Amino acid sequence: MQVSSQINVSVQTQYLSEHASEENQFPFAYKITITNTGEQMVQLINRYWLITDGNGKKTEVHGAGVVGKQPYIKQGKSFVYTSGAVLETPIGTMQGYYEMQNEKGDWFQAPIEVFSLSVPNILN
Predict the structure, then answer these.
(1) Is 0.85 topped by the overall pTM?
(2) For the chain, which domains are there?
């Protein structure tokens, strides 16, 4: 599958301390902005995540769409959503890709660069 640079993915993360109820449960939210910088409308079909905690434990997540949607994103427009992950350590990373399809029916991957999930001030 081809990898496209016509999709820009940006991420903002937040530690959800108010939802940390158990030991070794570190909940995080992440807000994703997917911007179509290409010349065709695209549809996000599937997602893939590789989540790695501070102990090196890896979890893979595959699935259709994001937050129950398979959005169409017009040229020059963005789709924004918020989701979350719970780690067993106060620090970890996520990375992955979206499988997308353009108006011509061509499938491609939009990479999601590695980003950190960390409890504030954990890395002083």
Answers:
(1) yes
(2) 2-118 (2.60.40.1470)
